[in-house]
Amino acid sequence: MAPARVSQAELDDRKIVGVNAETVTNVTSTDIPGHYPGEDHEWDLEEFKNSFKVKFHKHQPFDSSFSLIGIDASIANAFRRILLAEIPTLAVEYVFVHNNTSIVQDEVLSHRLGLIPLTGNPAGLGWLQQYRKPTDEDPQGSGVQDINTIVMKLKVECTKADNYDELNKKGEDDPRLLYKHAHVYAKDLEFVVSGRQDTFFSGEANKIKPVHPDILLAKMRPGQCIDMEMHCIKGVGADHAKFSPVATASYRLMPTISITKPILGHDAKKFARCFPKGVIGLEEVSPGEAKKKGSGYEGHEGEKKAVVKNTFRDTVSRECLRHPEFEGKVKLGRVRDHFIFMVESTGQCQSDELFLESVSILKEKCASMKRGLAEYTR
Questions:
Q1: Which of 43, 62, 263, 346 is most open to solvent, judged by the fewest CB atoms within 10 Å of its CB?
Q2: 60 forms bridges with which residues in the sheet?
Q3: Do the Cβ atoms of 48 and 66 come closer than 8 Å?
Q4: Burial level of 28, CB count in 10 A (0-12/13-18/19+)?
């Protein structure tokens, strides 16, 4: 049986998820072998290489947005889940409290310390191995070593400023001026080099330090002090959110807007207000359009008409579907295989590096599965 010939327009329509006033239609992928009689949808590597595209929309060190075009939702979601939960990062895990007379309880302060994003020499962070905690099967674990544990200290005491009396007489009431260490910040954490770590983490630029030095940890007054030692280890977001390398990693499908019948004059302006700025534009009906029979623009030369400008900015609020004057004139949808990713790094790694790392991890998972299948089928 000869393969069925399908027009490109029909193939494009199959990729659109319909967004209606109260329902969503055509949500299931149909490009699988056997779904359409006479059509061959067998996956082909060369065809994938030719159709797959990557397009960057915003590229900043810790905030990027890009599109993956031509992949299945399962693959896109795998990247998102890996970004959130499977890329190892460094964070405070153990806190040893020697003294804490501030008003912040030990466990609350420890929790704050654990959520501070840390950074350092990327080569050194890659050199660090993951710490293996003691278990019933392995009571010793990996033990604390220079290759798996980073030591940091926090030792601060609040005292009166040298010119406290002078400031007090002037009526100064800012505690940051009246006292030393009235506010304890992330920048007060000190990195302690251990063993071979000086090879990677020596110098101000390479040492382990907070990504954001002005994170407030506690407030103190004279006579109060904090003395703690912290052990930082590598972990993944699946174990605890503090190890997640991203503040957010999400995607959305590319919106589509099709104006099926002319929207003119006052209705065109109202239609544009139903969308975020820049999505819908207003243009004048040209003489050629006004003369064309069946265009819907006959006799409307020079009037304003609604045209689609940039669907990327649309949030698919469906506001236009609420108004009866637009009924039957517009179709909303999303492109099933066009994923717009937004990745915001917490600062330990740059956002584009994180995505490449997620690709590497997915490749390792696939290789592991292939090895498992080979063992199973022996």
A1: 43
A2: 63
A3: no
A4: exposed
